[in-house]
Amino acid sequence: MASALPRFVTIQSSFSEKTYLRYVHEDGELHRYLQATGEEIVSPYAKFEIERAKNENVFVHIRCCYNNKYWVAASSRSPYFILAAADEPNEDQSQWSCTLFEPIRVGDDTFQFRHVQLGRFLTVSFLSAAKRACLRANSTSVTSVGLHVFRVDDWELLLILPKHIALKGDNDLYLSARLIQGYQYLQFASSDHGDPTVGNEVFITKDGSIRIKNNHFGKFWRRSPNWIWADSDDTTTDNSDTLFSPVKVGGNVIALRNLGNANFCKRLTTEGKTSCLNAAVNTISLEARLVVEELVISRRIDFVNFRLSDARIYGQNIITMVTKSATNDTQESNTATLSLSRKETKSSTWNASVSLKLGVTTTITTGVPLIAKGEIEISTEFSSEYQWGNTVTTETEVESQYTITVPPMSKVTVSLLATQGTCDVPFSYTQRDTLMSGEQVVYNKDDGVYTGINSFNFFYETIQENL
């Protein structure tokens, strides 16, 4: 049944159809718990990854995308509450720290989850007010209804658009605000993305659908009857004619489905209107494909705050950095000093688990987390232009001296070894955007994930051979 689950998911408990399972990131007693109290689907705390088990196809590991840690029992003394706290997956079913779960399909998009080591099904807890709605492995037998049934939605069907956008049609012209026959239409008529009539502001609702406000008219998009007008002052989500669901076609090409009639919006010429937006088709035709451009001239990322308490270290391996030998073919012991030259490689990637960045030139100023002595420290500052999600790799030449005593008629080989590991560190940050209008807007975000690889815990190993 593991194959029935998408890779990235959001999870809702039958405890409430309006809340999502979320990682508790706040400091306190419930830190790292999983709780069915999330109000927004587009949240870094509500996104989880499903990983198939290596040894059992029917089992999965579930990883929280905020801190990249796996679901696991709280402890050997208190095994029933489930936390996102394991640095590595564990398939040993004899250990309380086993991270295997068995998904059991109940309906089209509903599942039960059984903790394999405990043999108990997951549910939300009502045992105490302090841990109300927290995830717990409770029952050994269940029915097909109740608090142990979870709705699972495919995160990748959610398309999270940037805040400020322009849309280009298949005629290579931008969608722009136009007053036609006294109505506020949207027409594919402008050739300049700097035109003040082409800008739109995106508002994401709690369930992931969007509302779009045209900057020129200062009004929200609305279907009437099937034409899309920018004429609504309604700031609620009560009118489905003002709600849209974006669908990714490929790259930065999308389609927009109006939730009022469930049709995709396309460029349409009819009834005396030319190339205006209309919710007209139930398939993504050529005219329904829209190129998204982010209307941001430049972006600066600063005030990066790493949450070291939510970091994880994994993938640790011993590697050989450099090896050298000294030979003594005399009958007396000799002392030799070896020069050991090595290359230390470090890689760093800053990314966002929720926000979409469409190639905007970005300058980032931040510290760099490094693994040292099995813990994570914040090292030197990095400040440069950066493409969000790219990996920055640096190499440093380091030379060290190592003195050894070589016995008579023998060869001594010295190897410098180290532990190489990977760390994931969540971070919050301030994003400062300069828009096409010259306006500067500031956002405080908490969806950053840093991934770094470096070597640490250096040590020498010597091997003696007789000649």
From TrEMBL:
Residues 3-154, 159-294 form the Agglutinin domain. It comes from the Eukaryota. This is Agglutinin domain-containing protein.
